[in-house]
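Q: A reviewer asked whether we had any structural model of the full assembly, not just the individual parts. We don't, so I'm hoping you can provide one. Inputs are below.
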Amino acid sequence: MPRKEITSGNWAFAEAMRQIDPDVVAAYPITPSTDIIMKFAEFVANGKVETNFVTVESEHSAITACVTASAAGARVMTASSANGVALMHEIFPIAGCFRTPIVFGLVNRSVGAPINIHCDHSDSMGQRDLGWIHLYCEDAQEAYDSAIMAVRLSENNDVLTPVFVCQDGFITSHGFEPVEYLDDETVKNFVGEREPLNSLLDVDNPVSYGSFAMSEYYFEIKRQQIEANKKALELYDGIAKEYEAVSGRYYPMIDCYRTEDADHVIVIMSSASGAVKDVVDEMRDKGHKVGCLRIRMFRPFPKEAVAAALKGKKAVAVLDRCLSLGGTAPLVAEVRSALYASGEMIPTNSCIYGLGGRDFFPQYAEDIFMDLINGKISPEERYIGLLE
Amino acid sequence: MSIKIKDVVNKKSPMTQGHRMCPGCGAPTAVHQGLMGVDFPLVVVNATGCLEVSTTVYPFSAWRVPWIHTAFENAGAGVSGVEAAYQALKKKGKIDKDIKFVAFGGDGGTYDIGLQSLSGALERGHDFTYICYNNQGYMNTGAQRSSATPRGANATTTPAGSVIPGKLQKPKDLTSIAAAHHIPYVAQTTLYNHMDVANKIKRAIETPGPAFVNILVPCVLFWRIDPALQGEICKKAADTRFWPIYEVIDGEWKLSYKPKKRVPVEEFLKPQGRYSHFFKGDKSKALLEQAQADIENEWKYILGRCGDTWEPQD
Ligand SMILES: Cc1ncc(C[n+]2csc(CCOP(=O)(O)OP(=O)(O)O)c2C)c(N)n1
Ligand code: SF4
Ligand SMILES: [Mg+2]
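A: Here is a predicted structure for the entire assembly that you could use as a starting point for your response.
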C-alpha cells in the first residue's frame, strides 16, 4: 500500500534510495544535498539497506568510485550540489562515455563566488554537455518518483547513460510537503535487478575501460553516445507510462500546463513553475490566454516536443535560473534553437531569475506575462527581481 | 608462501607484450615481475600516465585482465569503487570468485595529484594493493618534476641551468606517509631483484586490507640511460642506498636488503643523463656531496624506524 508522509525533497529522495537499495553509494556531504546522505547513512546503520556505503574523502572520489562501481556491474547512486558538482566535473564526461549507469540526486545550488548556499541551476547547467540525462523536478514527490524511474532509464541497455535527478536546493530539498511513497515491494519490482553488460568483475571475459583513443576513433565513440541520447528520448515515455501504471503519476518530458490554447507561455524548470501555474490560473480567470511549459527533461533536450508545444504562440518568455555569462542563458538558448529549427519564429523574451536563491514571487510571473501580452518584446536579457 | 621460479616461468603475465612503452622502460617490468606470482584473478585500475596510455591504445589493449582507467588523480578512489561493488555483489551471491584488486599509479598520479584519493582509500581500509611505479617525474607529459623527483635531478620544469642546478627540493617520503596510515602492508623496492619484487607484491595482494608498494622504475627516455641498463641502474639504486629496500608489516619496519659494501652515489648517478650536470662545472663537488648527504640522512631515518644499525663496509 502506498503511504503518505509530510517530508522534504531530500528525505523523499533518500527514501527512494532506501527502497531501491543500490549496491554501492559513494558520497560526500555538501549543503543542501547533505540530508540525503545523512538519512541514507541512518538506513545503512540500522540495517535497512544492504548497500555498500563508501564515505569517500571528496566529491571527486565519490563520482570516481561511482563510475568504477558501475563499470563493475553494481547499481549505483549518489548525491551532491554546487561546488561538489563542480569538483566532479572532470569525471562526468567519463561516466557518460563509459556508459556507466548512475542515479545522481543533484540538489541545485549556486556556484561561488560569492559563496552562497541557495538555489540556482548553475551547478547542473555547468554539466549540461557531458553525456548525462538531466531531469528537473518541480517538487519532492517528483524527486522521489524520478529517482525510481531514473534507475530504469539509466540502466536500460540501449541507453546506459547516467542520470541527474535535479531538485531545487532548500525550496524543494528542505521544504516539507506531502509525498506519497510506493510500498517497498512495488519499487523493488519496478526497478528489478541490474543486468550489467561488460562488467569489470567478469574476470573470464576481461574488458578494458578508459582506453586512449586518438583522432581515428574518438569521434565514432562520441557518435555512439549521440545514439544513446536519442534512445533515451525514445524510451523515456514508455518508462514514465509503466511508472504511471504502478503509481498513478505520469511525468512527461515536458509538462504542458494550459498551453494548448494559450497565446502566451512562460517556459521554466523546477520549483518556480508552481508559482507560474498559480498565476496562469488567476490570469485565465481574468480572461488571459496564458500557459506554463515546464521543461522536465533538459538533456537530451526534447526539441521537437518543445517546438510542437509552442507552435503558433504569439510570444513566449523563457525563465532561466542560471546565467551563461557573456552568452545566452541555457534554457532560452535551447528553446530558441528548437523553435528556429522547426521554422517557428516566435518572439521570445529571455528572463533571468532566482540567482543565489533570490525569491521568485507570483507577481513577477504576472508582470512577465503582461509584457508578452502588451507586446513588450525585446532581445536583451531581463533580470527579474534584481535591485538596480 | 614465497614464489618458486619454476612455478611462474610459464605463467601468462596479466599484461601482454606488444604494448607501446619504450624498450627498456621499467614500468612494464614492474607489472610483469610484480604480478607473476599472483594466483588470484585480478582487476587492475590505472591512473593516467605512461603505463596507462601506452598499454591501451584503442582499439587494442595489452591487458589480459579487466582493466579500468578514469583519470589521473583518482586511482585510489577508482579501486575503492570496484572493490566496493565486488563486496556488495559478493554479499548478494552474484559473484562467487575470490578476486583481488590492484591499482597502478605513476609517481605524479600518486605522490602529487592523487595523494588525497590514495590516502582516502587507505584510511577506509578497502581490500586492495596500490603500486606506485615511481620513475621520479611526469614522464608521459615530457619529464616535468614531481615531488618524487630527487634533489638536483634535471626535469623539464626544473631544468639544470646556469643559476639553478635542477630540482632544489628533496623528494617527499611517500612510503612513510603510506605507512603512517597504519595499514597492514607497505613496501619499497626496485627492479634490482625480480624475486624481491614478485614476493613483495604477492604478499601485498594476499594481505587482507589495503597495501602499498612503492617501486622505483627507470624511465629510459628521461633518465637518459642505455635501455639495457634497467636492472643495473636499479641495483645501483639499492646498493648506494639511494632507494632503501624495506617492508612495513603491521607496523614493523624491516630492511629487506642490506648492501654489504659501501657504494658511492656517483655510481648510481653517473650513467644517467638527467644528472650530467653533476659531473661538470664548478658546482659538481657540492652537488655530489649534497646527494650523498641526502642518502645518509634518509638512511639514518630508515634505520631508526627499523631499529637497525646496518652500515655497509668501506
Ligand atoms: C587533471 C590532470 N592534470 C594533468 C594531466 C596531464 N598529465 C597526464 S599524465 C601526467 C604525468 C604522469 O606522471 P606520472 O604519474 O609520474 O606517470 P608517468 O607518466 O611518469 O608514468 C600529466 C601531468 C592530466 N591527465 N590530468
Ligand atoms: S617515457 Fe619513460 S616512463 Fe614513459 S614509456 Fe618511455 S621509458 Fe617508460
Ligand atoms: Mg612518473
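A: Points you may want to mention in the reply: The mean pLDDT of chain A is 98. DSSP finds 13 helices and 16 strands in chain A.
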